[in-house]
Design goal:
heterodimer; A: 469 residues; mainly alpha; Cytochrome-c3 Hydrogenase, chain B; 3-stranded antiparallel sheet; 20 helices; 50% helix; globular; B: 223 residues; alpha+beta; Beta Polymerase, domain 2; 5-stranded mixed sheet; 4 helices; 19% helix
Chain lengths: 469, 223
């Protein structure tokens, strides 16, 4: 057998292992190199070991720049973001963000499914504000179909409530992760605790804590449960108290101020040139909010303020986000009141577009409503055919191209959707604010210390799911 | 997959806007009419006989102006600097690939009438979405390029945000932006071959089998 032959080899070759090792000692190795035509060995550098200040070292060291890769597997880069930092000592000379580690081809995948399943894809992009992704996509589809005005009032109110709740939960995660990146575990625990109250509401309404696929072209997938208003009111009255807790903990905290003030500054002009929108732009003093400039879902009829800051640094963005969460609470309170007064459907009445399936909350979570199933399976063949055609083939959308922005917690989230008149999107391009903000990081971090880079990145709140799509 | 069998690009049943909607959608709101008039005044209009002028499109109450690659940067700089337009933000820059080859122009399977086909050249349209915060308007500047070796001048000199956005269009569509400071792939790996958002680039995937029945991968399904 061949294995036996191999095991016989070493003894036959003669010399035991110990002897061979002694032959290849360093000195003799050098001797053989000199004898052959191999390249000559480099001269050993000489070190003189003395102490001294950095400034007094020879000039050769002064010009040395070091390249440091921060990420992608780094707990404080806010996700799988890699930054190639060029450092002079500890000061950042240049910063090149390298992205794509979370690229999943969502935009391409959407092109191969009917229009409605597209919602389940886009909700997975920016996973901290899934409802904004759904809303932007659905508004774009509705605009292409020309049915924007036919979406029922009740559906519009529910959309406003859900997205503004989502803004609060997203800002809470920002505080949590941003705080943790600075070592403030209290902020982390507080932030995730507040977010949990909102996620419980989402779970009650949509059946899921994330990736809801709740907002659909033409409305929302189902009405809210009966006790929703009551539960939402409890959450919404509690949130301002919790926000006050944050302010008590952080706003006057000397460490928090020391770390955040003057870090990651972008002036208004820089923001506009770099395409930066949302909290970073508003913290630099420009009151640009898509809810005001391009209102959606009747949000212009609610009473709220667009918050602006002055300094354009990380601290201004912190104050602004806290205040924005308060404004969201104001909107939700008004919307909950309207919801109680508004009856009616939550989906478009056009049966050629409206999703046919009816959902209901069962003992094992949200699923198909039993009544609806018995109707299509037992009583009405036409309903079954209609259901089958609309669920598998979907509806066709007239050819055209639209751009619809919504104000996501991170900035202007735009859906640039092209249709060629078939039952599938021809191209869905997402203008994700996180992507644009990562492009602005070199400008915002130049000249900072490494420790401040973490603060600067956190203050933009990029979500890598949205950056890489 | 060959270009002709890609179900994603066949123009099958085409939906029409409902009656009455279409006319309304083709009209522009007043503030965009002012933008259109300002642009046409400065750059000319193809419809009025200016050979290198703009082509003006209106759809869904959105304004699109189509220009050639030669005057693109001039136009973008004009939109940014002109006091009546003042587009401070380049909101978005993206591409759409339209395949060349034979396409069905109209088909009536049930009547037995002949199928009409038309020949098209492949093109990539690049859309620049400009936003003015001061005046509150938004419109699109479009450039149509041949999909063989598409090339455009870079807009990074006018808007810095174009740096990342142009890299994405290069990565996904293969449009080369001349003089771009760092034209590399951005989302795909550096050594990736092909440009994934072109329509002749397959999605890929495998058949899924369950209890003897199979479902083809998404880009081979016939619905």
């Amino acid at each position: 057998m061949s294995s036996d032959q191999h095991s016989d080899q070493p003894p036959e070759s003669g010399a035991p292992w110990g002897e061979e090792e002694s032959v290849t000692e360093p000195t003799s190795a050098v001797a053989t190199h000199e004898g052959g035509d191999a390249p000559a060995r480099r001269a050993e550098p000489e070190y003189t070991l003395v102490g001294g200040d950095w400034e007094e070292l020879p000039d050769a060291v002064e010009d040395d720049l070091m390249v440091l890769n921060m990420g992608p597997q780094h707990p404080s880069t806010h996700g799988v973001l890699r930054m190639r930092l060029t450092l002079d000592g500890e000061t950042v000379v240049d910063n090149e963000p390298i992205i794509g580690y979370l690229h999943t081809g969502i935009e391409k995948n959407v092109e191969f499914r009917p229009w409605v399943p597209g919602v389940t894809f886009v909700t997975r992009m920016d996973y901290l504000s899934p409802l904004f992704n759904e809303l932007g996509y659905c508004l774009a589809v509705e605009k292409l179909l020309g049915v924007t005005d036919e979406v029922p009032e009740r559906a519009q109110i529910i959309r406003v409530i859900m997205t503004e709740l989502n803004r609060i939960s997203s800002h809470m995660v920002w505080l949590a992760t941003g705080g943790m990146e600075l070592g403030s575990t209290t902020a982390m625990i507080f932030g995730f605790r507040e977010r949990e109250t909102v996620l419980d509401l989402f779970e009650q309404v949509t059946g899921l804590r994330m990736n809801h696929a709740y907002i659909r072209p033409g409305g929302v997938s189902q009405d809210v449960p009966e006790d929703f208003v009551e539960r939402a009111n409890t959450v919404v009255t509690e949130i301002p108290n919790r926000l006050q807790e944050f302010e008590d903990l952080l706003t006057e905290n000397p460490i928090w101020i020391e770390r955040l003030k003057g870090v990651g500054v972008l002036t208004a002009e820089q923001c506009l040139d770099l395409g930066v929108t949302g909290p970073p732009l508003r913290s630099a003093g420009i009151p640009y909010d898509v809810r005001v400039t391009d209102p959606y879902c009747g949000i212009e009829t609610y009473d709220f303020d667009v918050i602006t800051g002055e300094d354009g640094d990380a601290y201004a963005r912190y104050l602004l986000r806290i205040e924005e969460a308060r404004q969201s609470v104001r909107i939700i309170e008004q919307a909950l009141e309207r919801l109680q007064r508004t009856e009616g459907p939550v989906m478009l009445q056009d049966q050629k577009i409206a999703w046919p399936a009816q959902l209901a909350l069962g003992p094992d979570g949200i699923g198909n409503a039993q009544e609806y199933i018995s109707k299509i399976m037992g009583q009405s063949m036409e309903s079954l055919i209609h259901h089958f055609k609309l669920v598998t083939e979907g509806f066709t959308v007239p050819a055209g191209q639209v751009y619809v922005p919504v104000e996501s917690p991170r900035g202007e989230l735009g859906y640039h959707v092209t249709s060629n008149g078939t039952n599938k999107p021809y191209r869905v391009k997402v203008r994700d604010p996180s992507f644009i903000h990562v492009g602005a990081l070199p400008t915002a971090t130049r000249g900072l210390l490494i420790a401040d880079v973490i603060v600067a990145v956190a203050s933009f709140d990029p979500v890598m799911g949205g950056v890489d799509r | 997959m060959s270009r002709d069998t890609n179900p994603n690009v066949t123009l099958g049943e085409t939906a029409a806007m409902r009656e009455g909607d279409l006319e309304l959608e083709r009209t522009l709101p007043d503030h965009l009419v002012a933008v259109r008039d300002r642009l046409v005044e400065a750059f000319g209009n193809v419809a009025e006989g200016d050979a290198d002028g703009l082509e003006v499109l209106a759809d869904r109450r959105e304004l699109t102006v189509v220009t050639g690659p030669e005057r693109l940067i001039e136009l973008l700089a004009f939109c940014r600097d002109d006091p009546a337009l003042q587009c401070e933000l380049l909101s978005d820059l993206s591409g759409v690939h339209w395949l060349g080859g034979t396409h069905e122009a109209s088909a009536q399977a049930t009547t037995g009438w002949p199928t009409y086909t038309e020949q098209r050249t492949g093109r990539i349209e690049v859309n620049y979405l400009l936003t003015s915060i001061s005046h509150g308007h938004r419109f699109r500047v479009r450039v149509n390029l041949d999909d063989e070796a598409p090339r455009l001048p870079t807009a990074t000199g006018v808007y810095s945000v174009a740096d990342f956005l142009e890299r994405e269009v290069y990565d996904f569509f293969g449009v080369v932006f001349a003089d771009h400071p760092n034209l590399q792939r951005i989302l795909m790996p550096e050594d990736w071959e092909g440009h994934p958002h072109r329509k002749d680039y397959p999605l890929g995937g495998v058949e899924v089998e369950y209890k003897g029945a199979t479902i083809p991968p998404p880009d081979e399904r016939d619905y």
